[in-house]
Structure prediction request, 434 residues.
Amino acid sequence: MALEDIVNVTVSNETTGVSQQGFGIPLVLSPHVQFADLVRTYTQASQLLDDGFTVTSPEYLMISRLFGQDRKPDRVLLGKRNLRPTQRFAWTPTAANNAVYKLRVGNVVATYTSDANATVTEIIAGMLAVFTPAAAELGLTFSDQTTYLRILANSPGQFIAVENLSLARASLKQDQADPGVVTDLAAVALEDPSFFAVLNLFNSQAEIEAIAGWAETNKRLFIAQTSDNDVHTNSTTDVMSTQEALARQFTSIIFAEATDSFADAAWAGRGLPTQPGSETWNLKQLRGVMPTKLTAGQKAFIAAKSGNYFELVAGRGITTEGKVSSGAFIDNVRGVEWFVARLRERIFGTLSSVDKVPYDNRGAAVIQGDMLAQVSEGIGTGFIADSPEPVVTVPDVQTMQLADRQARYLTGAFIGFTTAGAIHRVRVNIRISV
Prediction:
């Protein structure tokens, strides 16, 4: 019997509850070959070196981002993907005369300057002239696909660090197929369900969409980084647009130019250690992450799709906006899940720790006391606003339906409150008189 079968809580806003014990543990999904265990737990990044990873391994770099923030999780889970993706990218230039094109793949940076009669064909050829000699060392295959440059991993599970340094003149898209990430994720969750957030190393659009569906069903927070440049255009088929159209409550997507920025991990490392509902994921500094170089128009497109990015403001790198794809704020989604889980646990603790809670108004008052206590805790953490005053009621047991009384099912208990939210912007009017 599940806990919610005994204590059933219905939330009448945009999200429903889950039964979980923790809300600060992230899971990193990786198709590594270091060990056969489906899940391993780490309390510091250096422990990965003992398991055969190196300081340049993407797993080490991502988990270093998680542990490298001002606040850090107590532990991180590394989940194994047995269905390994073959990473692939398309880099598509737009012809511009006398323009500089720049692309980093691994540790190789290719620069090409077009002539006065630029064509896409010659731009791709210029890039290939730099990358082809380095292909074997990088373990990649580069090919001219007429309208774009294809970058393909030679081996399944190989991670490619790619950074499009020509955002104004070229577009990057990670487009490998999903080999079955949800199958692996479900197996990991069965082995160790203690995590709340999911991070993935191979975030093609297909993989993000697959994990987002699982996260929505299983009420886990999926934080995904994308380097797909179509998210900051008027495209309606990019990954931010598709997830916004589905009003995903448990998926948050952040843009970063480089696939090895691991802005998603840094963001999770900063936000997850906080008490759910007490935080905002907006305006946060991320250690180890370079701010984006987006134009105002590109930022506007991302914001319109309920996406996020990391920008430089007044000399300080900060996150913007702190939203999930539905447009809700991450802190509210996480806060509601925390409140519902803790309410269930509190009431269950009462029901299971005494000989009985009588089915009368005295017993209903006991349940109301648990409800009031959880609301009070929510106010104390900053999740629930104390004004307007929350409403907590239980029914008069004498009015209960006979079937409910016979089933010993107390229905009609109610909690109503306003979330406290957070101040993200301020407008000040100044009047100066002489």
